[in-house]
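Students often ask why we bother encoding 3D structure as a string. The short answer is that it lets us treat folding as translation between two languages. Here is a chain of 357 residues written in the first language.
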Amino acid sequence: MAQAVMGTLDRYILKRSLSAASLILFLAIILAIFFDLVLSLEQFLSARLDAQYNRWSLMAQLYLCRIPIIINGIIPFAVVAGALICLTPMLKKGEWTAVIAGGISPHRIALPLCILALGAGLIQCICNSYINPRLYHPVQAIESAFDNRQHTSRIWHVEDTQTTWYAARCYLPKNDVPYFEQVFIAPKNGGAVFAKNMQWNNNTWVLGGPIYHWHVHGDQQSMQELKSLPLTDSLSLQLEPELLRQELLTREAFNSLELWERGEHMHMTLLLNRLSAIVVPLIAILYALPIFMRFANQHRILVAASQALLIASIPVALIALTGMAADASNWSPWLSNSLGLIIAALPGIYLFRRWSA
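And here it is in the second language, the structure alphabet:
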């Protein structure tokens, strides 16, 4: 009988908290988009777009792409708020006292909330690891179209020829050949090359015109205008398309498997930051429940809920700061991120154990 009662109670708590968290998440997305749209509407309407773009379609695409990013930042707080909304009637009507008097421990009541938090953390991790990286370049491309800034520009250096390269627009599609527009090349020995585009043709990189090639010979300078220029000799770029694409991608555009394959310090730091998202909502719940679910809060629900949300934001902020510190330090990313998680989790575990004892 007791197991049947707990099964019913578990389902009730899980269903009610999930519904509340989902509603909060939906409202937060609507509000975030609304306020961003209000602040950016003048910029959207005044932007001079190329003929192939539809202004309203681009705006819709931009906000659709931003939804996973918004969700990523809100999930821990939505889970905590959903749990508080679920437990508020129990606390306000005195049902909490009856439940505890009936021999059901706080630890047992918190179990479905912890399961919900872990599930939400897994969703957050998936968004961080695979969905947001796929949307990184589409978002930048749309923002570039609206504000006339080159979010897709790249600058790189080629050691073999001692040349510095800049491309104002870089198209780096996965499983396809990269394409570059408004390319500028600065050789070490002087001179410069400016080309309308650069593309892969017949197993070599070729500049497309009009091309302006400035030559420097001592005190003499000259300019040559060309229609096409294969990149060889002192201007050679000995990187095949996929290697160049991998070289120019920012780490935020890599999914977690690609970060693992690269294995460098900055890539591993970002990977571990993404993986730590799995436990962030759970740690936030461990902080919030002991602060909110107290008999003394029966007649001060709003104040208690505000305090719980504020306390729950501490480990979230601490884990985020630890990730930034690990990125800048020379410590092992595994050590830095592990220490951050332990430091963030220990006070919550202590509070939770005292509360549920």
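Translate back mentally: The first strand starts at residue 154 and ends at 158. Keep this in mind for the problem set.
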